[in-house]
Amino acid sequence: MLILGTTVIGARDIGRATRFWTEALGLTALPPVGDNDFTNLTLPDGRPLLAIQQSEHDAEPEPRLHLDLHARDSEDQAAEIERLVGLGARRVPWDRYPEDSDFVVLEDTEGNRFCVIDNSRAPEQCRLEMP
């Protein structure tokens, strides 16, 4: 049997990446472990959600795997994008947005790309229950 553990993000500057993702998602960083300073970022109940590890490589400009962060609606999406940019994220010039797109592509402080989704406009099978 397998279960999905965490999603691991590579970073050249683990401290900067850890600060960004803990602030972005309200997570808590555990002390780094191992030779690559593997750092678990946990939910309030202590369960690991993300991890940051040392990487000697730059982020891929078009990664095949990325995070989707859901905002409640377009107003919440716009506010979250501004908050994330304030934390150090950057907007990605993306020329492949579909018409009436429900997502915006950003990159974190290390260049790892992720999307901020307007959950209210996401396809029904992709919508999340929002608190």
Written description of the protein model:
This is VOC domain-containing protein. Residues 3-119 form the VOC domain. The model has no long low-confidence stretch (mean pLDDT 95). The protein has two domains: 7-54, 2-Layer Sandwich (Signal recognition particle alu RNA binding heterodimer, srp9/1); 67-126, Signal recognition particle alu RNA binding heterodimer, srp9/1. A hairpin with a 5-residue loop joins β7 and β8 (113-118). The protein has a four-stranded mixed sheet with strand order 1-4-3-2, covered by helices on one side. A four-stranded mixed sheet has the order 5-8-7-6, with helices on one face. It contains two helices and eight strands. It is of the alpha/beta class and 131 residues long.
List the helices and strands and how they pair.
Layout: E1 7-11, H1 14-25, E2 28-29, E3 39-42, E4 48-54, E5 67-71, H2 74-87, E6 90-91, E7 103-107, E8 113-118
Parallel strand pairs: 1-4, 5-8
Antiparallel strand pairs: 2-3, 3-4, 6-7, 7-8
Short description:
With 131 residues, the chain is of the alpha/beta class. The chain folds into two domains: 7-54, Signal recognition particle alu RNA binding heterodimer, srp9/1; 67-126, 2-Layer Sandwich (Signal recognition particle alu RNA binding heterodimer, srp9/1).
